[in-house]
Amino acid sequence: MDAMAEIRQTFFEECAEQLAELEAGLLAIENGEADSDTVNAVFRAVHSIKGGAGAFCLDDLVHFAHVFETTLDEMRSGRLDSSEKVVKIMLRSADALADLVTVARDGGTADAERNAGLIDELKGLVALAKGEEPPAPTAAAGGGASDGPVYDDGMGDIDFTPVAVDLSDLMGIGGDNKFRIVFKPSPRMYAKANEANRVLRDVYALGEAKVSCNTSEVPHLTAIDPEGAYLTFTIELSTAEPEEKVREVFEFVEFDCDLSIEAIHDAPDGDIEADDPDIAEILARIRATPDDEPTPAKTDEAEEEAPVAAKANQPEPEPEQAKAAPQPAKPAAPSAPAAAKADAAGDGKGGAGVGGAAQTIRVDLERVDRLIDLVGELVIHQVMLSQRAYQAGLARASDVAVGFDELEQLTREIQDSVMAIRAQPVKSVFQRLPRLVREVADISGKQVRLVTEGEWTEVDKTVIERLADPLTHMIRNAIDHGLEKPEDRLAAGKAEEGVVRVAAMHRSGRIVIEISDDGAGINRKRVKEIAIKKGLVPAEANLSDEETDNLIFLPGFSTADKISSLSGRGVGMDVVKRSIQALGGRVSIASRPGKGSTFTMSLPLTLAVLDGMIVSVGDQTVVVPLTAIIETLQPKASEVKSFGGDARLVQVRDTFMPLVDVARELGYSHELASATGGVAILVEAENGARSALLVDGIQGQRQVVIKSLEANYGRVPGIAAATILGDGRVALILDVDAVVATSRVEGNFFNSGMKHAAE
Amino acid sequence: MKRTILTIDDSRTMREMLKVTLASSGFTVVQAEDGQHGIEVLEGMEIEPDVIITDINMPRKDGFQFIEEVRADASRRAIPILVLTTESDAEKKQRARLAGATGWIVKPFDPTKLVDAINRVAA
Hints:
Chain A: Keywords: ATP-binding, Chemotaxis, Kinase, Nucleotide-binding, Phosphoprotein, Transferase, Two-component regulatory system. The complex is a heterodimer. By secondary structure, chain A is α+β, with helices and mostly antiparallel strands. In chain A, the strands form five sheets. In chain A, strands 14-18-19-17-16-15 form a six-stranded mixed beta sheet. Chain A has a five-stranded mixed beta sheet with strand order 6-8-9-11-10, covered by helices on one side. The two termini of chain A are 55 Å apart. By secondary structure, chain B is α/β, with parallel strands linked by helices. Chain B has helices at residues 12-24, 35-44, 63-72, 90-99, 111-121; strands at residues 4-8, 28-32, 51-55, 81-86, 103-107. Classes of the chains: A alpha+beta, B alpha/beta.
């Protein structure tokens, strides 16, 4: 069934949200930042999961969620303290619940042993909260009735579900069942929108019924309370249905009326009540409900103005009708006040019923992407149009030109707004981190506190999705390799508990995520030894601290002597680096011995557009991402030094940096361009390495729509992506990091060592 | 004329499930996401719903508060309100009843019983 499959998907989506909420709430409780709203939200999260799981018959999930929910309910009602021990159990239960959800969605088996253990622990907490009873009463569904507090309606010991009494031994089996039903509605019943006539109709539906109505209690017209209830119905029913069916009719009203249902034997004598202890007991209990003398009942149940409204609708009821007045009057009444209300609330939201307070809508991602694509095309065409107009001789000061400017402005705004639709806070990724940290900490035997900052920082959805893996790996790495064991930390004069801090922020049009730990920092001596042993750098290499730190990003580098199951899966930091680079991002490391390390990832906010400088290279046009550019200059002959083959350095003030001939690098020309003929664009890679890119000239600066080259053609070294320019031509977007890295390979022996090792 | 049901549940899963069930039985479904939203939607409706189905546990305003608020308006006493409860919520059923609920539906609900319950309380 399509609809069910869709709902199922919704359910799992919702589960993910609820689980995130659950964990966030529990963590807040752990940190002592929780108020009652948090506890309620946590309870609701589990409750919701249970509700949905029930609909899909996910019994394991329902059972676990039920026990969990029961425990949370104790916390919610204040009987269970949110001590560290309690919260830890709950956090582990949340993890188990998440696993059960995953199993329910993807198949597989849950860790039954762990879950059973947790269920025992949870039940233990409930027992603790309730005094010192043995942990048992939390069994599955159904047992709740007796646990519930007794309410003042005198019915506390009777479940709200219909009371079924087996009277089969009193009845002739199979034959026509006959019942005498005495039914006296109370005003309360009408106040809850139940109506005698509907109940009677349902009784009729069961078989043959004779109804008589006792009107003797109807007062004089002047004394009549329009919301009162004065009628008593006596029904003689003969039906093929069993008594349960008859009782079911009164299911919703049984507590709001005087009701007796008696099975009648062939000779109806009507006095069974006293003979049968069961019925007598039931009746006694039912009678114990506060009786509905019209007057006191009115003050309980009715609003002061209510009778007026009802009277207005039925000014002169005949006694007969008046008895039934609450019924017909009610349905008629609402329309008028409701209309008045709609008018009164006519501040713009009067319209459709669904309108209301909906703050968000859910949109298929494909639609958004289609829109983004179209807006991208719109931007290109807008630029093309104005370019052609100017080429055709449009005066810059003309009205049309002003119109073009405005159009450009608007197009930009549309583009930004459309991009913003895809932007999401990184919270969704950050939410998964606490569990990761707990698990890694458990396995590695380290004590870790996770601190997250800037979780509301927004970035494109695709970036978020692809952020999770590298981030996960870097955090594992930070705990596994960065933080010391508790005893070592104590020996080093640090707190036993290590801190891993993950912070997101916007910085110059990019999102920057820092993962820092207060561990031992990178052991540079060791790193260098390994790199030399593995032939990644020549033994005589003289490396700066920064260069040494960055060795860990080299393919095939792994500092762990034995392969750890944590950082494992054969994924090294080189893969992390590559996956970040594939996103147009960069990663760098800063480490201080004994103090810890900080990994910094910097990613574009969106994968759809980029601010670039349009430059000419040979007969081609190339886009250099603006974020990488520091400055542009025209090198003088005296500032350019050649050495060893084609390698050149350019002097910028008091430093030298490699001068990269972009045309040659990209294979547009084979000859080395004259350094003085062009423009040098000073760029900086994410690791801080700088190079000067030699191009023929600068055309301008504009935002370009990124078209993936990999998706449409294939990966080209040195090229990040492609774009379509205003005049319709395709231009390539330079991968600055790659070009800078290559230039430095040629530029110094350390990197050439790296290059050889990589080959 | 098609009957209109206002369903109030903070769970998207439940809302969709109710919607599919009810729509396939020929009801018009109006949805709200919690008690507060339910009140707002109710205020905005030109014609009162024939039946309201509400969850109990919800943020901002729970089902009890919602029912009490609806019943506090004398003109809305005639709207049948069914409560969605889980089997283990006996205590909640009672509270809902005291607040003014017309009847209840046990979660997870059986579509036939749900429709049956609606037909029993709808005018």
